[in-house]
Amino acid sequence: MTELLLRDAELDGCVHTDMRRADMRLADVRARADVRLADGRIVEIGPALPHRRAAQALECRGGALLPGLCDHHLHLHALAARARSVSCGPPAVRDAAGLAAALAAAPADERGWIRGVGYVESVAGDLDATTLDRLHGTRPVRVQHRSGALWMVNSAAAERLDLAAGAHPGIERDGREAPTGRLWRADDWLRARLPVTGPPDLAPVGKLLARMGVTAVTDATPDLDTAALEAITAAVGTGALPQRVHLLGAPLGWSAPDGTGVTTGPYKIVLADSALPDLDALTEQIRAVHAAGRAVAAHCVTREALVLLLAAVTEAGARPGDRIEHASLVPAELVGELARHRLAVVTQPGFLADRGEDYLRDVPGTEHADLYRCRSLLAAGVPLALSSDAPYGPVDPWAVITAAVARRSRSGRVVGPAERLTPAQALAAYLADPDDPGGRPRAVRPGAPADVVLLEVPLAQALASPDAGLVRTVIVGGRVV
Fold first, then answer.
1. What sections of 248-349 are H helices per DSSP?
2. Could you tell me which residues come within 8 angstroms of residue 460 by beta carbon, excluding any fewer than 6 positions away?
3. Which helix (H) or strand (E) holds 133?
4. Which of 339, 288, 289 is nearest to 310 (CA)?
């Protein structure tokens, strides 16, 4: 029996289970105890537990022992691919000259392509093939918008992709039906025409997440193909990706082999801002997903998308586990509807710290309070989970917790102060099971999976100044990772 004894850990510095309390704070009494892990479970908690000869011991010195954090919405392969891409947006690149220099200095892949990420219009306006040709026309270039919804290519790339003959509806065309070099939500089409390189290595992503205390993730990438499913399952199986993985993009009817650490979650439906679906079609899709035994996870960024989704759910009926991804703009009058349908919200206040200045400039002032709502959702009884949306948002959960509490832009301006969470509420929104975002926070207790995070300091001190650097040891399934 593999056994690990954690000595002198702070355990009762946990969060209250009622996240809706506006005055939610740390428990007043915080106990220190030993914790025994064996065969992937927490088996015993108590003072001065005996150290068995075969057991490994870890001195905690009063540091907080927490359930492992769960990032309830990210994109594993996109996060891995970002490491081999050139940054095309702030803060690394801020203007057209900087973008041209970044593309010129970028190393090409083995087929000569340049892959850029993180572009935003404040750098050089709307990019198309003509504009990209002026910035870098010598090698094929594809640049992803920071939203993840749009790819932009230069003429050399358009020629290699045979964009003129492409039939995907997301290929943008001008008045003469010539492609502009802009491709909306055409990842599958684009991937099928790019040089075959295989899915990127997920081991660096696993290490990055572990260093920050993340022991479980929900991959929110829609329409995962066989290669992606096999790559994720293999990475978890070999330990290259030590986190447990919940998939939203698995096809209906697919399930991972038992014991792999990979599970299937709600079915991802993208309500694309560039082409919202028909109400009847969306209603029927939701009904079909429910009939197949899956809940839905609906990508909703705009208020129009949210209104459409709520209308479809009203017609189709809600199912336990139905959830909304992002909920970037939630009008106050719709909060009650979310609660009535018991729709969980998985949101990303980290965007307020990362892009707050853009929101304050581009979103009407009357809608600032609607951005990435948190506290009003909890108060209404809406299950709330926090996440990163990495690589499109900040991956560090402690930075997201800080953003949920402070709601400050890079310049220090506050976005929607009434929506602030307490530090304990923000942490609790990372502690629910992957299949129950916004549900009861997990606790360090006998019988629970041995997925825990040891901090260098007591929890009150950590939440006073959240920092991934305070993560000392991460344990998944009873094994230090």
1. 279-291, 303-316, 332-340
2. 13, 26, 30
3. helix 129-135
4. 339
Predicted pLDDT at 273: 83
Please report which helix (H) or strand (E) contains residue 119, including its range: strand 114-119
pLDDT of residue 12: 64
Question: Does residue 275 have a pLDDT over 90?
Answer: no
Sheet of strand 65-67: strand arrangement: 65-67, 452-455, 471-476, 479-480
SS3 assignment for 400-445 = HHHHHHHCECCCCCECCHHHCCCHHHHHHCCCCCCCCCCCCCCCCC
Query: Listing from the earlier edge strand, what are the strands of the sheet with 214-219?
Result: 69-74, 214-219, 244-247, 262-264
**Distance between CA atoms of residues 379 and 306, nearest Å:** 19
The pLDDT score that the predictor gives to residue 18 is 52
Over the range 287-298, which residues count as b (16 or more CB within 10 Å of their CB) and which as e? bebbeeebbbbb
Residue 28: the pLDDT is: 45
- Is the N-terminal amide bond of 391 cis, ω within 30° of 0? yes
Length in residues, the chain:
481
pLDDT confidence of 27, banded at 50, 70, 90? Answer: very low
- What three-state secondary structure class fits 459? helix
Confidence of residue 191 (pLDDT cuts 50, 70, 90): confident
Mean residue pLDDT across the chain: 93
- Phi, psi (deg, nearest 5) at residue 175: -65, -20
